[in-house]
Amino acid sequence: MKFRIQHVTRYEYAETVSLCHSIAHLKPIQTRRQQCLGSVIRVDPWPAVSREHEDFFGNRVNYFSIQQAHDALEVTAQSDVEVTPCVLPEASKTPAWERAIERLYDKGDGLMIDARIFTLPSPLIPLDPDARNYAAISFEPDRPILEATLDLMGRIYSEFEYDPASTTVTTPVAEVMANRRGVCQDFAHIAISGLRGLGIAARYVSGYLETLPPPGQVKLQGADASHAWFSVLIPDIGWVDFDPTNDQVPQEQHITTAIGRDFQDVTPLRGIFYGGGTHDLRVAVDVDRLESQPTPEMPAR
């Protein structure tokens, strides 16, 4: 399935900004089930410096610097992607989760060894004991890793309340565990903290989810949003994604932008600016099925 994603971020400042430096994780990455057909980022005002590089995790990172006075900043990213379904084996026939941990220390298995970084605590995901104990309920001794992870995903979906007003991007894992409520970022962080606490390699995934309007209604432009979920490395299968917000293994409607240890590694847009005072932020995202020709690859601007 092919999609066109448009992500518009606009800052309006109370006072003039004289200089800003920003980095963006807005261009989708290539994965075994996703191909980025074309992607372009437009920045207004025109940046004095603009470049793209690949970070440690393989993400496409755009850096830009605006060195002229401005009262507003608008960043528009447009990408075309093609996503194929995820085909998984029978959950009960995957290796026991303890065997998956052992494989992380097999010196002859480069993929598994490289994933060991995703067993460590990260700035926003400490090894929270409550999260570990919560995950351990699903990970009984010798239980197949895919079966156990599906169970954990389903429990988070059932036992945590989706509440956009309850957390911010910096809400600690311990607070989310205590209150049992949050948003997609929080649910991914909870799962990852618990999995890493058990020694399992788990990473944070940032992207988009196609949403469809109720039957008979027109889809509102700009009404979509960024989404987040988590991924677990399963021996001989690879990284498998899990979306606890919707209790599903991501298929064609999930588009991956970036992967990392936690949200901090994959923030869609962040930076520093001089001046500005207070500011208003508006974000509009559209994920539409694509029938026309793909957007040509262009350098960041």
TrEMBL record:
It comes from the Bacteria. InterPro entries: Bac_transglu_N, Papain-like_cys_pep_sf, Transglutaminase-like. One of its GO terms (biological process) is proteolysis. Transmembrane segments: none annotated. One of its GO terms (molecular function) is peptidase activity. Residues 176-246 form the Transglutaminase-like domain. Coiled coil: none annotated. The keyword Protease applies. This is Putative cysteine protease. It comes from Imhoffiella purpurea.
